């Protein structure tokens, strides 16, 4: 759709994903710039055919702990979870567990780690995804999801494609400028967007 609209929308589009629990609809806009005092931009690359947009992820900060990355990651609004290379994931997971300091509970399916009892006060630190030229600060709502009786980290390990999923993008206006080949992030209350 965006490639067909092209110059009619100035080769730009953005979306703003609402929290799952909000009951509000997410929004999609065409032809607008993402702006604001906290907006940051990073270049993207594509492969041939240009199916996915890839961002250069330099590192991830969890409080005072830094986890180096130095790899490309696909940004995908159609993938729920964030997938990181196993050693990077382990660094993020361990730093979060240490910072939270609440005893985790097991995930019966064995997919998510850590998990905590639903309703536990996590006080998780911000997690900063350090893209080339853009620090994107993820809050607790971008990192954890509560299902029934557990609240679990929504970052999982993989050895395949690394993906920055849609939970991580909640409450950001995420804008794509296909001419400049940049992706911009602006923290936004997407329920009021």
TrEMBL record:
It is found in: Secreted. Residues 1-186 form the Peptidase A1 domain. The keyword DNA-binding does not apply. Keywords: Hydrolase, Protease, Secreted. One of its GO terms (molecular function) is peptidase activity. PANTHER family: ASPARTIC PROTEINASE CDR1-LIKE, OS07G0603500 PROTEIN-RELATED. This is Peptidase A1 domain-containing protein. It comes from Opuntia streptacantha (Prickly pear cactus).
């Amino acid at each position: 759709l965006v490639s067909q609209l092209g110059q009619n929308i100035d080769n730009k589009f953005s979306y703003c994903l609402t929290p799952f629990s909000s009951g509000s609809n997410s929004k999609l806009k065409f032809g607008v710039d993402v702006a604001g005092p906290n907006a940051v931009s990073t270049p993207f690359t594509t492969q041939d055919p240009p199916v996915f947009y890839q961002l250069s992820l330099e590192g991830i900060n969890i409080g005072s702990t830094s986890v180096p990355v130095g790899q490309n990651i696909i940004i995908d609004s159609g993938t729920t979870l964030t997938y990181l290379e196993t050693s990077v994931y382990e660094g993020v997971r361990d730093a979060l567990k240490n910072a939270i300091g609440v005893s985790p509970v097991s995930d019966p399916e064995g997919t998510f780690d850590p998990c905590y009892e639903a309703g536990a006060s996590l006080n998780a630190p911000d997690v900063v995804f350090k893209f080339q030229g853009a620090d994107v600060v993820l809050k607790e709502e971008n990192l954890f999801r509560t299902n029934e009786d557990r609240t679990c980290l929504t970052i999982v390990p993989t050895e395949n494609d690394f993906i920055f999923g849609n939970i991580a993008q909640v409450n950001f206006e995420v804008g794509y400028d296909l001419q400049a080949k940049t992706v911009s992030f602006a923290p936004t209350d997407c329920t009021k967007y």
